[in-house]
TrEMBL record:
Molecular function GO labels: DNA binding
Record protein name field: BlaI/MecI/CopY family transcriptional regulator
One Pfam family linked to the record: Penicillinase_R
Gene Ontology BP, a term: negative regulation of DNA-templated transcription
KW Nucleotide-binding (keyword) present: no
Organism per entry: Ruegeria pomeroyi
Family affiliation: Belongs to the BlaI transcriptional regulatory family.
Amino acid sequence: MARKQERSLLTEVELEFMTVVWEIGSGTVRDILAELNKAQTRAYTSVATVLKIMEQKGFLTSERHDRSLVYRPAVPKEDYQRTTLKDLSSKLFDGAPAALVARLVDDEEVTDDMLESMRALLNERLGDNGR
């Protein structure tokens, strides 16, 4: 039996695979391959290998159904988002979430509507719905 590696962050390819698994909830290699192939053609064996690695890292679980393995997320998307943002904040913004937000709102591609949505979220979090 393969030993479980310590969970880290997903690589770009693993994140693409994980996004598919989060979207479909669970699936066999063929199910996941079909979704991935909508964007880019991949080989069955390559997909199977990456899924097995992700399982070893603790991001997926698998269960045998008939002759196929069915993969499911072992990590909820929200938990992974939280972990990734903490890592990003720590590495690029000296652990200061305000610096991350400041950089985000300074981005020229952030529209006024997006800023209003962010304001509404902050007001809700702070309990300042009337402002």
